Here is the input.
Amino acid sequence: MARALITMPPTAKKGEVVEIRTLIAHPMETGYRRGDDGSVLPRNLIRRFTCVYDGETVFSAELFAAVAANPLISFSTVATASGTLTFTWDGDDGFAQTERVAITVT
Amino acid sequence: MSHRTGPPIRTATRRAVLNGALGLGLSLVIRPAAGTSAPSLESAIRVFASEAPVKVGRVLLDVAPLVENGNAVPITITVESPMTAADHVRRIAVFNELNPQRDVAVFTLGPRAGRARVATRIRLATSQRLVAVAQMSDGTYWQHAVDVIVTLAACIES
Here is the structure.
């Protein structure tokens, strides 16, 4: 399990735009670099990130080699109802991680 | 006689030198594009926009014009849009000019995003041009290009 950090307010008013910042520990190895022995380091990237809010995908991203290591993704969503936001990162070598954060909407 | 032939010879030489310089300049301009096997920035944008015209405006790609460390360059893309069900941003893509690959990231948004603003951190292999392209719900494409100078490049040291 990679370390993931999700910053978002725990509560929000209905209809308010909530800013979400996600950070995950990952090398994002490009597949273009060479190691100390001269061999090409195999590509190891997070390819896809999705945020599902109460069963609906509100945001997703496709990432390529040009995204820096430990990818930070900042976006926003409208607080519609109290529930859970599910964050998923998928990548090479079967990398998959899911984090859940609850939000209370008043 | 010799003083009469002097000037034409000098003119010819000057012309030859200028032509040579021009030719050298052109070859220098053309070489980087011909040398790389990856598609050009323009063709990558054309593929993303599926040949539709891409207008300038509505998109703001915020990135420092002078970057010290190319390994992690913060970028923020903001698109002018009310983000309603009828009028919203569908996708935002970021492309680079001189990294090994043209694609940087593609973000998929919708009316539930509330605000068309995304931020991330990227790698830049050298000083180059970055382009952010937004696809609106009405099918139009908008872009903003920024030239960035990088002092310490990413992925140079092995």
User: Anything to note?
Assistant: The first helix of chain B runs from residue 2 to 35.
